[in-house]
UniProtKB/TrEMBL annotation:
<feature type="domain" description="Peptidase M1 membrane alanine aminopeptidase">
    <location>
        <begin position="367"/>
        <end position="561"/>
    </location>
</feature>
<keyword id="KW-0732">Signal</keyword>
<dbReference type="InterPro" id="IPR050344">
    <property type="entry name" value="Peptidase_M1_aminopeptidases"/>
</dbReference>
<feature type="region of interest" description="Disordered">
    <location>
        <begin position="592"/>
        <end position="613"/>
    </location>
</feature>
<dbReference type="Pfam" id="PF01433">
    <property type="entry name" value="Peptidase_M1"/>
</dbReference>
<dbReference type="InterPro" id="IPR014782">
    <property type="entry name" value="Peptidase_M1_dom"/>
</dbReference>
<dbReference type="InterPro" id="IPR027268">
    <property type="entry name" value="Peptidase_M4/M1_CTD_sf"/>
</dbReference>
<feature type="signal peptide">
    <location>
        <begin position="1"/>
        <end position="19"/>
    </location>
</feature>
<protein>
    <submittedName>
        <fullName>M1 family metallopeptidase</fullName>
    </submittedName>
</protein>
Length: 737
């Protein structure tokens, strides 16, 4: 039909158009995609009134043979059954068994030959390295020394209980074991050692080193997925008493509080240690570089035992070397003063003494503000070549200057970034204890987001692109063949860094900066952290809490960003300019011109802003529009308000599949600009195309969608109307990506 220039019918046509198009349910609630709420986990995302979790306490004695690189240990574990279910057996994780030749990880790994193979690659294989990996389980007994039946299935060991363990009962048992520590230069892994040929010394970073309880939970029962290397850990909380026996000249860093500092440190070192506990302005050197260099020479044949205690932690790791420099600084967090500490060889300096402990401190401050106050007594960064790995209170981090001590800005940013990230893991997942074996994004993604917040606050001059919408644009425009949803089990993910780290973080940045706003987001995010601190959250608990604490329906966002592989590509297809007129001849000429231009009378002509406005008039409203209402609209008043306004009918199309808010930048002919944000719900009746009318005081010269790249839109060339600036927009995109 011919265009009727009646403002009421214009808006009516918009409504009708919005109901058309393919409907894919992007705004349907998650519904059955999430598990049903119950007495353990509520519909609000909070722990339920009958929430429970298990506990396991460890007493461990461990030693390292610095000649043979063999670790030997014996442990006593006390397991608490807090579940309502009787248990006939326990499952133990034996992560070192991933390095046996017959492990599922090794036998299922894809391999192929090449015409040129670096020697390091071949050296990493069992056939060429000669390394024999895996736990040697020497005995498993009850507390009285009686043998217990057990069965080892790859990286899992089932221990048969003499009798059923009922709710409220405990069971105490012992395991003795050993394994060969591996050289991390050849064999990739989270623990192991680095060998320094120039001074013939080792630096041990010991992780996944003891048999430990798997999680038994209300949502899964026993965690029973084999360790394949990528999906990390599902662990239960407990208390640890650990005695670590190493060469006498070694310095040890570990999870927990050092219990016998006077026995293992010199008097002067112990005095420095005590001084550090009240040094808030700068680190105190407990072991200096000069002392570390002297330690490198001694090669003591005597041993010394360091004793550590840690409460309410899910794991325990430690590092040991005679090469370590050690500095520490107190950090004020609420009513606590945890020690930020760094351990590193001289090869890490001067970069490490300048930046490491500072980065630890900065991380504790920012994360504590946005989640929970850091509850542990220490937070430690240990230098380890080519590594970034986290454990409660301790992490192993890369970043090494050149031999002459020089380093690039890139090296500095990489080192600071990995320290912030790994120290941040104390919060996700060491305290807010998600199942990394299933959902990598729940620790890596949330932590990458908080890493970005920390870096933005403390290091604004660094490159802060990673973990933002701009940082994932190239990934999201890539072939769908190589992309999987964020909600993919860890071992099955493609493009792991983007999927589990970058994209989840970018999504949270969008929620905070663009969709929800900082105030609502920060409140809900902190609520999630506080609800699930020292508990076992699932994705549903996170999704539900974020909505519950903000009154923000985000199901459309979770569905699109986390469950699909769609991308953002929203096009500004057309902008039509309208103005009011009372000139009947102008209207008549306009209708005739449109009718002759479009056979059949349908107006499909693209009305460029440069062509000037089309016109509409305003009529008195027919009585039937009022129904039973007795009052009437003053048409003259409406005309007076409309006659100097500019009306812009804008058509957007969703080419990528992901619905998003419309971030609009209006450019006016007087040189000014205006930012306007339309919520994502604009797409709720038509997920493919929407048209909306905007009323402006000024004359528009250009409209730009997502001008700052806040939404990871993969095709900025269709974001501008008119496209006179198309080339410059594309050039800007290429520069920033």
């Amino acid at each position: 039909m011919k265009r009727l220039h009646l403002i009421a019918l214009t808006f009516l046509s918009i409504f009708i158009a919005s109901a058309q198009g393919k409907y894919e349910g992007k705004f349907e609630q998650l519904g059955t995609m999430l598990p049903s709420p119950n007495v353990y986990r509520t519909a609000s995302g909070a722990p339920g009134p009958e929430y429970w979790q298990q506990k396991a306490d460890y007493d461990i004695k461990v030693s390292i043979n610095d000649k043979t690189q063999v670790l030997s240990g014996e442990e006593t574990i006390k397991y608490y059954n807090n579940s309502p279910n009787p248990l006939g057996y326990l499952w133990i994780q034996l992560d070192q068994n991933i390095r046996t030749q017959e492990s599922l990880a090794n036998t299922s790994e894809k391999q192929q030959m090449a015409s040129k193979i670096p020697s390091k690659i071949l050296k990493s294989t069992a056939e060429f390295s000669g390394y024999e990996g895996g736990f040697d389980i020497k005995k498993v007994t009850d507390k009285d020394g009686n043998d217990l039946k057990y069965f080892i299935n790859g990286t899992m060991m089932r221990i048969e209980l003499p009798s059923v363990l009922s709710n409220g009962d405990t069971f105490t048992f012992n395991i003795d074991w050993s394994y060969n520590i591996y050289d991390r230069m050849y064999i990739d892994g989270r623990g192991g050692y680095e060998y320094f040929p120039e001074d013939d010394n080792f630096a041990y970073t010991i992780a996944q080193w003891y048999p430990r309880l798997a999680v038994y939970s209300d949502f899964e029962g026993w965690q029973n997925k084999q360790f394949l290397g990528r999906g990390e850990f599902a662990l239960t909380f407990g208390d640890f008493n650990v005695e670590i026996t190493v060469p006498e000249d070694h310095i040890v860093a570990a999870t927990g509080s050092l219990q016998n500092a006077k026995d293992v440190l010199t008097k002067e070192q112990n005095n420095r240690f005590e001084k550090a506990k009240n040094s808030f302005d700068k680190p105190v050197f407990i072991v200096t570089e000069k002392e570390a260099i002297e330690n490198e020479k001694d090669k003591s044949t005597k041993s010394k035992t360091w004793v550590f205690k840690a409460e309410n932690v899910r794991d325990f790791a430690f590092a040991s070397s005679r090469k370590y420099i050690w500095d520490a600084q107190a950090v004020k967090i609420g009513d606590k003063t945890p020690l930020a500490m760094s351990f590193y060889p001289k090869e890490g300096n001067p970069l490490w003494e300048e930046e490491s402990t500072k980065a630890v401190k900065n991380t504790l401050i920012t994360y504590s503000e946005h989640t929970i106050e850091y509850p542990y007594p220490v937070a430690i960064s240990v230098h380890a070549a080519n590594q970034g790995m986290e454990y409660p209170m301790i992490c192993f981090n890369y970043g090494r200057p050149s031999k002459d001590g020089s380093y690039s800005q890139r090296t500095k940013e990489g080192m600071v970034g990995v320290i912030v990230h790994e120290v941040g893991h104390n919060f996700f997942p060491m305290i807010i204890n998600s199942d990394e074996r299933q959902w990598t994004w729940m620790d890596e993604g949330l932590n990458s987001f908080m890493e970005h917040v920390t870096m933005t606050e403390h290091y604004p001059d660094f490159d802060l692109t990673w973990g933002t919408p701009k940082g994932v644009t190239n990934y999201m425009r890539g072939s769908k063949e190589f992309i999987r949803p964020i909600m993919t089990q860890s071992d099955n993910i493609l493009q792991f860094g983007y999927n589990a780290y970058g994209k989840p973080s970018a999504g949270l940045v969008m929620l905070r900066q663009t969709i929800m706003g900082e105030e609502l987001f920060d409140y809900a995010f902190k609520e999630y952290a506080q609800r699930w601190a020292f508990k076992h959250p699932t994705p549903a608990d996170f999704f539900r809490t974020m909505e519950d604490a903000s009154a923000f329906d985000l199901d459309w966002f979770w569905k699109g960003w986390f469950y699909s592989i769609d991308h953002v590509d929203i096009s500004v297809d057309n902008v039509k300019w309208f103005k009011y007129t009372e000139d009947k001849k102008v209207l008549e000429n306009q209708v005739n011109a449109e009718a002759s231009a479009q056979p059949g009378g349908e107006d499909k002509k693209s009305n460029s802003l440069e062509e000037g406005p089309s016109y509409f008039t305003i009529t008195d409203t027919p009585d039937r529009y009022y129904g039973e209402f007795m009052n009437r609209v003053d048409s003259k008043e409406v005309v007076n308000k409309a006659k100097d306004k500019n009306f812009y009918e804008v058509t957007f199309s969703n080419k990528g599949g992901l619905v998003m808010p419309l971030i609009l930048e209006w450019h006016y002919t007087d040189g000014t600009t205006e930012r306007e944000v339309i919520p994502a719900e604009i797409w709720r009746r038509n997920e493919n195309e929407v048209t909306k009318v905007f009323v402006k005081e000024k004359v528009v010269s250009k409209l730009v969608f997502d001008p700052e790249g806040e939404l990871a839109d993969v095709e900025p060339t269709n974001n501008t109307f008119p496209q006179a600036d198309l080339e410059s927009a594309f050039d800007k995109f290429k520069r920033e990506n």
